[in-house]
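Hi F.,

I've been meaning to write this up properly since the lab meeting, where we talked about keeping a consistent format for the predictions we share between groups. The idea is simple: the sequence comes first, exactly as it goes in, then the structure tokens exactly as they come out, then a line or two of notes. No screenshots and no reformatting. I'm using this chain as the first example so we have something concrete to point to.
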Amino acid sequence: MKQRIGISFTIPREPTFNNYWKWFTAEDLKDNLELVELSFEKNNTEDIDTCDGFIMSGGIDIEPSFYHSNADYENAPDAFLKERDLFEKKIFEYSQLHHLPLLGICRGMQLVNVLQGGKLIQDLGLSNSIHKKGEEDKEHEVMVNDDSLLKKITNASSGKVNSAHHQALDKNALGKNLKPSAYSVTEDKTIEGIEFNNKSGKGFMLCVQWHPERMKGKDESPFSKNIKQKFLEEIRKNKMEKLSVINPATEEVIAVINEDTKDSMAEKFKLLKKAQPAWAATSVSERVECIKKFVELIEKNKDELAITLTKEMGKPLQQSYNELNGAKTKIQFFIDNSEKWLKEEWIATEGATKEKIVYEPLGVIANISAWNYPYLVAINVMIPALIGGNAVFYKPSEYTVLTGMHIQKMLYEAGVHEHCFELAIGKGSVGAALLELPLNGYFFTGSYKTGKFIAGQIAHKLVPCQLELGGKDPLYVMDDVEDIEKVAAAALEGVIYNNGQSCCAIERIYVQEKVYDAFVNSYVEQAKKLVVGNPLDKTTEIGAVSRKEQVDFLLDQIDDAKKKGATVLHGGKKVDGKGYFIEPAVLVNVNHDMKIMTEESFGPVTGIQKVKNDEEAIALMQDTEYGLTAAVYSKNYERAEKIMKELNTGTVYWNCCDRVSAALPWSGRKHSGVGSTLSYQGIRIFVQPKAYHIRG
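Output, unedited:
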């Protein structure tokens, strides 16, 4: 696995940016380092998380508002590139968050100083004759401070360097915790290098005003050669834990991303906590406007988003598009309804004492999300939480972390305040680290086992804890249904949609004996026609399941059922070749002694059980530790309603299944969870009421 050096892009590419690229020879990189272009034009912020070290390059002047100065000065450019400043700010912050090596060159050094709170001399005036580039770089001598990191690296007290700048660091306004490491041997003694004064808890950071990548004699000069060698040495020392994102359909690694640590998580929490009050101080309507722009960005980027989702998660491409469309619909509910349910309520407006209720944000909340519907599931939490004025610490599943990065990028592009939406990147240990932080609420979607663990770990904090957990969702077909093929088709789609990886997917089917044979025959015939294959192929209806271990888990359920007397009428085998593919399975002669009828499956498999009457169906449907959804198919609503009233589930369906509406609460009972998302209840769950007693 190669380590990566991120180099910030500067205009023009020829020869300016390519000089940085060519500075590193094949001998420098060997077979374990590679270069990555970090481009403000492409806004490829997701690549920052894959790098082990950074070079912040030279280029056009920093936008003066960054250091609270005037944009009108003699050598000011025709136009600044604020988007570049903001992009490279993220690079710097990321390097510091994870203690990664950073080399700042010319403009890069100036930006580090500015980001640390320092200022710049905007124009060197008469000294431009020494420093400002003409047709070629100029040269001058520098003196190196004896107590500096630069002295240790170069082992030189002085030497000649090139010069190509008309701005410099303000000696009287140096950034926090920075100290000079070199000066020019000129009357103005321009600062030529900086480093951290207190290096405790810091990664390697060296900044120089010259351009080592294009110096004359760069292959021999210690002011180029030694700096490069030390930078490479520091990168190779880096031992960050890495997260490999694997395409479940091909088993290829599509990205390798740096995992968070306890320290980086603690720092991100500080950023969230600091940023949240200003976000909460904006009006609800302003926050809603940001979310509207987020929806527009989903539409604008839908092709890239859908392809990324399919490659990460394995669902058929059209279903990825469907998820994005569903996400936009859900978000529209929050856009249309949040102001109504978050506005202050006057309870008493007459008499000596007036009374009202005001809804305030919880603060900083954790959104620990699932991989099966990374947009639809996350949106239930993050969107109403942000609209409610909260900051969100979002942990995407390690299986869909690229989608999480897309979400973060779009939210910030839409106008959500900086650091109000941070990612926690990593596996279960990173999720566990979230539980140790003093957050103001925890919202989890996933398995019962993990949900129970989370609830136990944070119970002492006495903060909201909402758990959206799994299900073993039943479907009952009554003997009065008229179009058996239509019902079988609906049931089949409820089982296999999203590769069966939905908490509300149909996982067990009960059919009244009078229509049992007809239903089974139709179901099996339709199942045989399903196309299993490459999720990117438009004809594919079932892709790969997301996790390798899930294939073995499903095969074990099928084997258990077969040993106990079940018959497999179709499928139930692993598909040969690369990828985590399993044939959709249809089992009959099943009962509740079998895992497939009692344990959550989360895959395109189901058992179909014959029942004599409604009473037997109710008993079997209720025979579960879960209580998420249940479906009844019948011609007669009154008959179906009697059954639905008896079912201890958060959602019931009549003549439909596997469906979610933003206007209705989404909640589970028993092992399927605690609390509700969606509907107006899912707006108010992210705020807390404050009672006002007003006597004037």
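Notes:
The chain has three domains: 3-237, 259-469+681-688, 473-661.
The first helix runs from residue 13 to 23.

If this format works for you, I'll send the rest the same way.

G.
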